[in-house]
Amino acid sequence: MIKIEDLVVRYGAVVALRGISIEVEAGEAVSVIGPNGAGKTSLMRCLAGLIKPSAGSIMLDAQRIGGKAAHIVSRQGVVLVPEGRAILAPLSVKQNLQMGGYNQPKAEVKASIDDMIALFPVLGRRLDSAGGLLSGGEQQMLAIARGLMAKPRLLMLDEPSMGLAPKVVDNILDALRLVAGLGTSILLAEQNASLALDITERAYVLVNGEIVASGAAAEVGEDLLERYLS
């Protein structure tokens, strides 16, 4: 569904991505694992249209989307749940969800909110609470739900487990498995390799802006992870 070829991202003289190539098929869950500073966030932000590639191509169903503005990329079905969650703190949970569905017909937004409450029941109990008053785990659930309100074809998640308690992470992973099972493609960027490999079918190992290994998630060995991620 999405094909990235020879992607280069530069910030002035600093090269964040050095000609990487990645594919995600329709309905597939893929992880990009790597240490802090590997280039994972640059990859996600580039795919979402928040930064422009310096070279290479990003194709969605053979249509070029690399370099297009973020709102255009989102309307084409590529949605990012960013690192840090980017919750609109003064707005209520319900308003945050409505913002996520701004591209959807108004008649469908209420039904979509109901779907998000079914996926994350805690949000249903906090609908009128300001987003900034939620716990870290609740904010991450809200960020994912807000992304899903756009009905994405590809949902990208940048470090969704960061700073969260293991029990909360387990709840989020269960929800992501359900989302993937319903046919939404997922691209997950994580430092937590065991978590990422547990819920994705294929994995790429990104180190210093380069793909150093890739393959089926079940076949990514401990020696490889220890070599690059320890």
CATH domain class name: Alpha Beta
Percentage of β-strand residues: 25-35%
Number of structural domains:
1
Q: Give a count of the beta strands, DSSP E runs of length 2 or more.
A: 10
CATH architecture: 3-Layer(aba) Sandwich
- The overall average pLDDT, rounded, is 91
Low-confidence region ranges: none
Give the topology string: H per helix, E per strand: EEEHEEHEHHHHEHEHEEH
* Helicity level: 25-40%
CATH homologous superfamily?
P-loop containing nucleotide triphosphate hydrolases
The total of helices stands at 9
**How would you write the strand order of the largest sheet?**
6-7-8-3-9-10
| Euclidean distance between termini CA atoms | 32 Å
Task: Tell me what the structure shows.
By secondary structure, the chain is of the alpha/beta class. It has one domain (2-86, 135-229): Rossmann fold (3-Layer(aba) Sandwich), CATH 3.40.50. 37% of the residues lie in helices and 27% in strands. The chain has helices at residues 40-47, 70-75, 93-100, 106-119, 121-124, 136-148, 166-181, 193-199, 222-229; strands at 2-11, 14-24, 29-33, 55-60, 63-64, 78-81, 154-158, 185-190, 202-207, 210-216. A 6-stranded mixed beta sheet has the order 6-7-8-3-9-10, sandwiched between helices. Strands 2-1-4-5 form a 4-stranded antiparallel beta sheet, with helices on one face. It is globular and about 45 Å long. The mean pLDDT is 91.
